[in-house]
């Protein structure tokens, strides 16, 4: 059973440039930007450009490209924020916690003694998000050499 894709979901609109985001990475198949309601500092989303609701609707090529981009961006997030650990997660269906019906991967830095903030709960200050994006962009540039 394939979930039907809603081309007006919020990430589709970001991908079309109709809504803003703090973008940190883009290639032919994916973009990555800061989560607007981060669960921790540096929480970044990797979003395939392919129109798929979840992992079940994503092509094999799209899945490979998404994981490749997720690894690249996660390295940048780790370099920028020096967390104690990094969670990479991806939710399929509302029952699993998915709130935006366009496939995406979460990169969530974890810091010892800092509990995660709620999922999709509290909007981060835009100035802070911008600074965080700049840190990831700089780290990715450094890692690329
Ligand atoms: P999901 O619950 O679908 O796995 O994750 C959706 C994520 O998108 C949540 O972490 C939420 O904070 C984030 N989010 C929701 N709306 C927006 C938005 O308009 N811009 C950005 N950058 N992130 C969003």
Automatic annotation (TrEMBL):
GO molecular function annotations of the record: bis(5'-nucleosyl)-tetraphosphatase (asymmetrical) activity
Active site: 104
Domain HIT: 10-117
InterPro entries: HINT, Histidine_triad_HIT, HIT-like, HIT-like_sf
Keyword Hydrolase: yes
A biological process term (GO) from this entry: nucleotide metabolic process
Histidine triad motif (motif): residue ranges: 102-106
Top EC class of this enzyme: hydrolase
Keyword Membrane assigned: no
Keyword entries, A-Z: Hydrolase
Domain of life: Bacteria
Catalytic activity, EC: 3.6.1.17
PANTHER family: ADENOSINE 5'-MONOPHOSPHORAMIDASE HNT1, HIT FAMILY PROTEIN 1
Protein name: Diadenosine tetraphosphate (Ap4A) hydrolase and other HIT family hydrolases
Organism: Cupriavidus metallidurans (strain ATCC 43123 / DSM 2839 / NBRC 102507 / CH34)
């Amino acid at each position: 059973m394939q979930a039907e894709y809603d081309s007006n979901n919020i990430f589709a609109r970001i991908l079309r440039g109709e809504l803003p985001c703090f973008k940190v990475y883009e290639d032919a198949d994916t973009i990555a930007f800061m989560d607007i309601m981060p669960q921790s500092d540096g929480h970044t989303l990797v979003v395939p450009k392919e129109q798929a609701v979840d992992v079940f609707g994503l092509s094999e090529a799209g899945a490979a490209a998404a994981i490749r981009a997720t690894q690249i961006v996660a390295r940048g997030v780790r370099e920028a924020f020096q967390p104690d650990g990094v969670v990479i997660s991806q939710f399929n269906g509302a029952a699993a916690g998915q709130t935006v019906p366009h496939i995406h991967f979460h990169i969530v830095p974890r810091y010892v003694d800092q509990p995660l903030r709620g999922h999709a709960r509290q909007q981060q200050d835009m100035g802070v998000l911008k600074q965080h994006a700049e840190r990831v962009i700089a780290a990715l540039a450094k890692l690329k050499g």
